[in-house]
Design a protein that fits this description.
This protein is an alpha/beta fold. The chain folds into three domains: about 150 residues, Nitrogenase molybdenum iron protein domain (Rossmann fold); about 200 residues, Nitrogenase molybdenum iron protein domain (Rossmann fold); about 30 residues, no CATH class. About 45% of the residues lie in helices and about 15% in strands. The protein is built from 18 helices and 14 strands. The strands form three sheets. Strands 1-11-10-9-12-13 form a six-stranded parallel β-sheet, with helices on both faces. The protein has a five-stranded parallel β-sheet with strand order 6-5-4-7-8, with helices on both faces. A three-stranded antiparallel β-sheet has the order 2-3-14. Strand 7, helix 9 and strand 8 form a beta-alpha-beta unit. Helix 10 crosses helix 11. The chain starts with a strand and ends in a 6-residue tail after the last helix. Its cofactor is Zn(2+). Belongs to the histidinol dehydrogenase family. Keywords: Amino-acid biosynthesis, Histidine biosynthesis, Metal-binding, NAD, Oxidoreductase, Zinc.
């Protein structure tokens, strides 16, 4: 990996390079996505089935669109490593336990003058969860999107995922969906699935919100339908930053950097360190790992484009660059990681110490792995229970409470030229 002495110019160049990875820069795909959305909105099932045949090579009908209980039962039999089902259940328990701590209750407060104010918290009624499919299976992503929705109390969870050419869904995906509590599984993916969830078709009911990762067509489709439905976020390529000092194990650090580089040629992995010796040792370890890892070509491209080892003079400088880049995953491997953590303002998820490797968060620990990318950790949070709930304000005034403030409200409304607003207060006391 390249080793760079960090200064203002190099920081500016790196930030510029990283921002090129944003989905907002992929407008060349937007016309194709818009065409799919419009077609599905106008033609419903017919368009969905045609796109599924075109892009996935699978023939669907209204009768074969939904995964049956028989297909799910068969999926359990098809999983060769039965221990995987047990591991999925353990992961669900950890994710559920973490997200249950996020639950909030409706609240009300009252005053002696006859005013009652509050907030009513209501789960969303119907949520669509997009799960990438085809040859790959991502049960961890499925769990991270479904379990918080279940904890929130969503009435109906509809999962969409692209089928293989044989019209089947990966058995691991089906088992994970069943274990997590998905209500309906549909064999459809791509922008056409997003459109169907957003607008509804003859066979697919419109949802209130769409969550879950996908390719650039899925990301742009979610962005386009926002407003018709809610969405979680527009996810960009994966990224990890490691802050480390001379106490860090270079082999561990190198392994953690590469755990993200293997995701995608656009993935970013950055080490920020105060130790030149560690920087050189990590670079050497990275070279060794790359030669033996299965996704060598992807890793090499990722490192070439967005891999950096940044040398800084002080830990405060390391914290400053971490807060500026606002990485999706931030590992802190220093003498006192908890102290360093207190200075971090912007990060999606923070991993403390040499045994808190990022993949632990991806699969098992419990906190959500759906995280803000491309610097959006400056203003976005990880997916959480609140994403599956909505809040309504509660306002109650008795006549005795309204009367002493009525003139204030009337004056405020008149100041804005909204006489009908003022009148709606005035008529309640016109007999005075």
């Amino acid at each position: 990996m390249r080793i760079i002495k960090l200064d203002e110019q190099s920081k500016k160049n790196i930030l510029s390079d990283l921002l090129k990875r944003s989905p907002n820069n992929y407008d060349s795909y937007q016309a194709s996505v818009d065409e799919i959305l419009a077609n599905v909105k106008a033609n419903g099932d017919k368009a969905v089935f045609e796109y599924t045949a075109k892009f996935d090579g699978a023939t669907l009908t209204a009768d074969t669109l939904r995964v049956t209980e028989e297909e799910i039962a068969k999926a359990y039999d098809e999983i060769e490593d039965k221990e995987l089902v047990t591991i999925i259940r353990k992961a669900i328990a950890n994710i559920k336990d973490h997200h249950e701590k996020q639950l909030k209750q409706s609240w009300f407060s009252s005053r002696e003058d006859g005013v009652m104010l509050g907030q009513k918290i209501t789960p969303l009624e119907r949520v669509g969860v997009y799960v990438p499919g085809g040859k790959a299976a991502y049960p961890s992503s499925l769990l991270m999107n479904v379990v918080p929705a279940k904890v929130a109390g969503v009435d109906e969870i509809v999962m969409v995922t692209p089928p293989g050419k044989d019209g089947k869904i990966n058995p691991t995906t089906l088992v994970a969906a069943k274990e997590a509590g998905v209500d309906t599984i549909l064999k459809v993916g791509g922008a056409q699935a997003v459109a169907a969830l957003a607008y509804g078709t003859e066979s697919i009911k419109k949802v209130d919100k769409i969550v879950g990762p996908g390719n650039i067509f899925v990301a742009l489709a979610k962005k386009a339908v926002y407003g018709h439905v809610g969405i979680d976020s527009i996810a960009g390529p994966s990224e990890v930053m490691v802050i480390a000092d001379e106490t860090a194990n270079p082999r561990y650090v190198a392994a953690d950097l590469l755990s993200q580089a293997e995701h995608d040629e656009l993935a970013s992995c950055i080490l920020v360190t105060t130790s030149k010796e560690l920087a050189e040792a990590v670079s050497k370890e990275v070279d060794g790992f790359v030669e033996i890892l299965s996704r060598k070509e992807i890793i090499e491209k990722s490192l070439e484009n967005f891999g950096y080892i940044l040398l800084v003079d002080t830990m405060d400088e390391a914290v400053d660059v971490a807060n500026e880049i606002a990485s999706e995953h931030l590992e802190i491997v220093t003498k006192d990681p908890f102290l360093t953590m207190t200075k971090i303002r912007n990060a999606g998820a923070i991993f403390l110490g040499e045994y808190s490797s990022e993949p632990l968060g991806d699969y098992f620990a419990g906190p959500n792995h759906v995280l803000p990318t491309n610097g959006t950790a400056k203003f976005f949070s990880p997916l959480n229970v609140d994403d599956f709930m909505k809040k309504s304000s509660i306002i109650y005034y008795s006549k005795e409470a309204l009367e002493p403030v009525s003139s204030d409200v009337i004056k405020f409304a008149n100041a804005e030229g909204l006489t009908a607003h003022a009148n709606s207060i005035k008529v309640r006391f016109e007999d005075k």
